[in-house]
């Protein structure tokens, strides 16, 4: 009720204002065409113009509706087809998820032309064809996706690379990923797939260069980075060390290696062996000296005892370590071998026997047997040779021997005689 009263009051106010304007602003319209003229008041003419504008507006809308019924039908039909295509696309994606590859491919391709997202249809159809083993058909769907959608090179390339990896074609996948990597620097999915491909083809150099980028994008944990770096450098050193002429390449790898890996015993041993094969014993000695001063390891001590650089200096260094580790069996063995190099036979015997007391070992027994034989003490030599063979025999797997078969045969013969 209040709204009605307010509307009436507002209408009266507008009417009064309009009447006041008509009285205070006189004027007229004069239209002359040839000898004919029409004259009316200004306000009446203004009302006529407003009415004519409204009539013309509705007439044009009516005329447009009459002229364009086909266009409206087409718009309606297009929307209806798109809705049906979207339903088919959903059904196709559901079938793809459920593993019904043939139905998924057929449904997705049929819906692609009317779909508002043909890229999704063709990429999913390519995946369904791939799972059926129809690789050529899968590539056709990817080509069609390229034609229907601009700017989808990255998505299509990643799909191609993933399919190549699944087909055990890492070289083709690597070519695609390298191209994408040049176009899209540090793209996360490209980097992940590159890591997968480098590992599958044992491309350790490529992996070594990729690891810092993976870490910078936080695509690998610190633990995984360390594992990958260790594996890459280990395999590269082993490969390059096969040819002694590649020693500069091995040196370069060692120089590029992260600091924490230079303390890894396995890598130190590999690098030492590469240096020795290249006849660079002095460098190997310095490396082992530095490594043992900072990180004690039995494998490094053993390798140090086998070096032949300056035996007297090496023995002095080893005996200095022995003051700190008097009961280290590996160090005692190394001291014994270095003593042999400098011709100190009695000292060598003492070191070998001390090592044998700390930890009985077939290798130490063999050294003692050989040294006693050279000194003419053949009884002791034979004794240690037997000890060496016995210790070696203990490490052999348990397998049947002729003596076992003979014993079994004799037992069977005795059993037959008793039965008789």
UniProtKB/TrEMBL annotation:
The chain crosses the membrane at residues 42-64. It is found in: Cell inner membrane. Residues 406-420 have a biased composition (Basic and acidic residues). Residues 27-133 form the HemY N-terminal domain. Keywords: Cell inner membrane, Cell membrane, Membrane, Porphyrin biosynthesis, TPR repeat, Transmembrane, Transmembrane helix. TPR repeats lie at residues 329-362. Involved in a late step of protoheme IX synthesis. This is Heme biosynthesis protein HemY.
